[in-house]
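Protocol step 6 of 9: fold each sequence in the batch and record its structure tokens directly after the sequence line. For illustration, a two-sequence batch is reproduced in full.

Sequence one:
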Amino acid sequence: MKTPFILLISLSLLNITCTSQQKTEKNNNNLTNTEKKQKIDKIELKEQTRGTNRIITFNPGLISTSLNENITKSELLSSDWENIVKQVNLIDLSKISTYEAPTTGRYSDSALASTIIITSDGKTYQSSSFDAGIPPKELEGLYQLLQSKTGISKKTKPKLR
């Protein structure tokens, strides 16, 4: 008689523990989904070296390009903005400054020094500096998408020695 009673209590405790764990996992998933749906206000792609200063700003409906302080503006389709936001949502913004650049050509002016700055919910997130055309792997999808919308010709990747 004692054995079935102990077995029943053990199974009840096990069931309560599993149910509690499932609720915790659901809450964590909801938090993750909420974090990923942040409102993106604007995205800037800065590329500079001694003789060139280029800032490309992406806002909903507008691309603003400043090349050595000469500003041009063009339309950004809402579908393009949505694709950019989807790419941003794949990135952990709190870690964007820790992503390491794969090359160092910008140190000797053999490549433009690039930075991506994302403003989301009023907070600014800035990547570490990287060579233009060769972003950290975590930012590659976003960088390629931004470059495709600028109309600026891509340079080939510098040869590593």
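Sequence two, same batch, same settings:
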Amino acid sequence: MSRVSGGPGDWPSAVLVEVYRGGGTDQPIDLVLARGFARVVTTGIRIARIAGHLLARVGSGSELAIDALVVATAIRLGGGLILTHDPGDLSALAADNPNVRIGQI
């Protein structure tokens, strides 16, 4: 997720669960983090509550939990651009938040 400031992107810690897979694939992720291109944002109660409310609003269960945490993090940080290869679920979760934009890559 990127904010308008042009600074490092913010990665909710839950996203790391989806990208760390071992077998040599972790090193590039660690390099991005170590070089300051991304900042890991931990999930606290406020972000968790927002994510839970988003899931309830779209009528979803925990299968979209990580997507909801990504959108909730953007909301908590005041908005941003979320880049994804699968924008459908994220767009539905972010629908009521004009400061959160979803972009397809």
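Proceed to step 7 once all outputs are recorded. Observation for sequence two: The chain has one domain: 9-104.
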